[in-house]
Amino acid sequence: MERLKYLFFDLDMTLLRDDKSISDEALAYLRDLKKRKDVRYGIATGRAWTAIEPLIERFGLDTLFDVIVMDNGSEIYDLAEGRRERLGIIQTEQMKQLLDAFGGYDFLAVAFHNPKGFFTTKISYRTERVLINNRLSGYHDPYKEEFEATARVMLLFLIEDQERVLEAVRLHPVPGIHGMLSEPEVYDFLCEGVSKAEGIRHYVTANGDRIEQTVVFGDSENDLEMIQKCGVSVSMKNGTEAVRAAADYVTGYTNNEDGVFRFLKEHEDWFQEG
After folding, report:
1. Element of type H or E holding 265
2. Domains along the chain?
3. CA 58 to CA 186: how far, in whole Å?
4. Alpha-carbon 1 to chain mean position
5. What is the pLDDT of residues 25-59, one digit of tens each?
6. pTM over 0.90
7. Could you report the per-residue pLDDT of 159-187, keeping only the tens digit for each?
8. Cβ-proximal residues to 128 (8 Å cutoff; 6+ apart), any chain
């Protein structure tokens, strides 16, 4: 095994409990481990910055984490350097193709946010959650207002409609775009070649290291590529069947049971003393 120097965590259903909190015990442990070991911490999430910032403020994560790979790898925020870098963006013409392909379905909303605000084809329970989580003030209609290129386009739906959404996705491929479930009720479209794994690779390579020197924790389909490509991969006990099968390890506890830090306590010897 190569020397392991990085720890990357997904947020929802991994580091965060279902109520979107992190236990005081887990935070204290992660801070202590970082003091004792030569390791950098990263977040690898499907969330945009507007949905991450409230967590940063609430839990003081800017003093714990070194980097955030966000929007499923579309953007990297190097907290230590105060630098943000875009790795991929969906152009407006591709966004229009996605709107044409999926805007007519009554069981989903096509949605995205960019500097002009939050755009959605429908208002629903799911779009309300996005609005609240991102602290956005209102809706814009992509059929009536101009919009800019964006890192990610989402399909938002109810979990009972997931199979219908996946079938619609199979029927309407868009050139230069790929996608995956990031949550049971969210399907994300990204630029081809963009992923959490490639975002992680970009960051560690820029720091003179290799992706094989990373440990990653995840639970969902949008974590699958980093689970497969990073050095040591850990699925949460509550992870999907595909993620659990692909991972090197599976935690003995769920995200609601502090599965991440309880697993790390048993594997501290992976990291050199600081």
Report:
1. helix 259-265
2. 6-87+195-270 (3.40.50.1000), 92-191 (3.30.1240.10)
3. 24
4. 26
5. 999 999 999 999 999 999 999 999 989 999 999 99
6. yes
7. 999 999 999 999 999 999 999 999 899 99
8. none
